[in-house]
């Protein structure tokens, strides 16, 4: 028997989920509970992969939709157990993202004959290094389980659809000089002074804001680290500025690298990390009808999310969850109960309207 | 009996000194040898203070001159024992500054009736933190032993008189911003970008080169360290540039601090360290006659040296030693034998010419 009661209302279910502490790498119990709650449902094929639980319908529908949510949270911050406060539920994970997980479980239990086949992914370790990410591990061990026409990640988005996501690239931009005693500085070349030109260019940068599939993105080019210096009496011979480029999904990682290298022409540049963006892909029927079912606006996603993993597999994906993204990872995280109801109703409408 | 033979020629004496390893904090043996060599000389009052040896004449002359040299060296670098190579003696300490110490010992032994009273200071731990410096310790324990009308430090100066020295000031110049996720950088303020203006000002800096007592100094204003950054996906909210100002001795530490604070108007500045410069003071008779005896040019000293300690006591002081200052602290340090002879001859002439 599971401690999770799928026949209870969604808020009760969410409260039960929050009260099972599941900081990254400690997801065994919550995965056990989710698995035990889903196993009795005859319309779902349930499988377990580490602490990731997969539940699929196999109704022979013409389209398949993935609905995904991670089970882990960031570390405790004196914010458990859950506390109900009028129309607000407070506590670790209420926003990021057990609100979404509760909606997923409720839909899984109460929509036995959806108009599209469904794959529910309850996955582990989203909040830590990518090597542990349950979606990443599943894409390595069982890539067929990720196959779909469309994917909905129930990450916090304030119950608004967020399409695509921007890519990110980290580059080290380095200046060189010549060491000298700082008492005879005219005998050397100060590498930190040379970095002034790098910062001047960054200050003159104008962000590109392309519109893609009707969504306006907003790029960014920012120094996120700077280091230089040998000793208090030595002219430094090297200075490195780490620059983070956030690029709209109409650019590939390679194009982003070329852009940054050109931007810093005359300086040494080394790309140290990058991840691709994801195009919204909202022209596919499964995506279009989801937008229609939810109604209202669609926003671009500026930060990088697991949406990009699906995009890399050729699957359009969006974020759509009840939490407020600005509350994620804060001690005060909470979720507004009406947002839970809105998300659940939208998903239910999308999956039950006749096709 | 000492291993040092004051009756030998100066080069032999220097070779003996070099072969007594005396890296800072390991000066006991060399101090013992110097003390033992000087004790038999009837015209000198010898006293010992830690590993610093003081030897003074008391002839009732109207002027007193300090001749000072440190006994320690920087760490070994596979450069012992001393090696004679034609007109060059190679090895740790040959340049910085046992060449000067050998001249001091030879003069102490062979000029029993100098025209001015002499105070020879053979001192410990010049190459490490100021708290261990033998001159500093002596100024605390026996300040009367430093009293003089003029001081000659036999630091490497290529047998040219170097007058005065520049002061040094370290200041942290800080910019503040507002953190934000680097994917939404327009919601924050990048403190590293703001530091561009600090580097722009440094790049536009024009060094002051005042002429003082006939010597042309050369100031410098240099970033010696820069730090900023929180994480690869966060707009940094603070960036600090450590700036080193080397200032000519016509400015006090307080004036130097005001200059730098004004230079960086609009930014937070905190002075974290400073040391005063030293005016050449070459108008005193004892100094003037030394310049006349050596002949030739007098250069300014750009770096900070123990000359400033005497200046702080109101005693004009110069550097004058046989080593090439560019070789100090290098593995290849050496001294040209003719420079040893020149320095010894100049000192001898200065101290023996009738007054």
Describe the structure concisely for a colleague.
Chain A is built from nine helices and 17 strands. With 355 residues, chain A is an alpha+beta fold. Chain A has an eight-stranded mixed beta sheet with strand order 1-2-6-3-7-16-8-15, with helices on both faces. In chain A, strands 12-13-9-14 form a four-stranded antiparallel beta sheet. In chain A, strands 4-5-17 form a three-stranded antiparallel beta sheet.
Can you characterise this structure?
- Two copies of one chain form a homodimer.
- Chain A is an alpha+beta fold and 355 residues long.
- Helix content of chain A is 29%, strand content 25%.
- Chain A is built from nine helices and 17 strands.
- In chain A, the strands form four sheets. In chain A, strands 1-2-6-3-7-16-8-15 form an eight-stranded mixed β-sheet, with helices on both faces. In chain A, strands 12-13-9-14 form a four-stranded antiparallel β-sheet. Chain A has a three-stranded antiparallel β-sheet with strand order 4-5-17.
- The mean pLDDT of chain A is 94.
- Chain A binds chain B through residues 166, 168, 170, 181-186, 190, 192-193, 195-196, 199-200, 202-203, 207, 218, 220, 222-236, 239, 241-242, 244, 246, 273, 302-304, and chain B through 166, 168, 170, 181-186, 190, 192-193, 195-196, 199-200, 202-203, 207, 218, 220, 222-236, 239, 241-242, 244, 246, 273, 302-304.
């Amino acid at each position: 028997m599971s401690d999770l009661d799928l026949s209870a209302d969604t808020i009760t279910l969410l409260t039960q989920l929050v009260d099972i502490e599941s900081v990254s790498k400690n997801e065994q119990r919550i995965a056990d509970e989710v698995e035990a709650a889903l196993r009795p449902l005859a319309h779902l094929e349930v499988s377990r992969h580490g602490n990731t639980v997969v539940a699929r319908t196999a109704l022979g529908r013409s389209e398949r939709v993935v609905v995904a949510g991670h089970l882990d949270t960031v570390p405790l911050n004196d914010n458990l157990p859950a506390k109900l406060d009028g129309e607000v539920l407070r506590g670790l994970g209420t926003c990021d993202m057990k609100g979404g997980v509760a909606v997923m479980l409720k839909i899984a239990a109460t929509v036995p004959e959806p108009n599209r086949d469904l794959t529910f992914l309850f996955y582990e370790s989203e909040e830590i290094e990518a090597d542990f990410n349950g979606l990443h591990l599943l894409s390595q061990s069982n890539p067929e389980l990720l196959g779909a026409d469309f994917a909905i990640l129930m990450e916090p988005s304030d119950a608004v659809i967020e399409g695509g996501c921007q890519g990110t690239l980290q580059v080290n931009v380095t200046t060189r000089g010549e060491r000298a005693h700082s008492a005879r500085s005219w005998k050397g070349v100060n590498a930190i002074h040379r970095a002034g030109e790098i910062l001047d260019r960054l200050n003159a940068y104008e962000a590109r804001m392309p519109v893609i599939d009707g969504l306006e993105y907003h790029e960014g080019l920012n120094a996120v680290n700077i280091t230089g210096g040998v000793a208090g009496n030595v002219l430094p011979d090297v200075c490195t500025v780490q620059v983070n480029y956030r690029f709209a999904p109409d650019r590939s990682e390679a194009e982003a690298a070329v852009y940054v290298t050109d931007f810093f022409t005359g300086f040494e540049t080394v790309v140290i990390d990058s991840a691709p963006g994801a195009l919204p892909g909202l022209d596919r029927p499964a995506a279009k009808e989801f937008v229609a079912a939810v109604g209202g606006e669609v926003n671009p996603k500026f930060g990088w999310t697991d949406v990009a993993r699906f995009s890399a597999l050729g699957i359009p994906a969006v974020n759509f969850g009840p939490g407020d993204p600005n509350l994620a990872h804060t001690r005060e995280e909470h979720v507004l109960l009406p947002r839970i109801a809105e998300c659940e109703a939208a998903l239910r409408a999308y999956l039950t309207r006749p096709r």
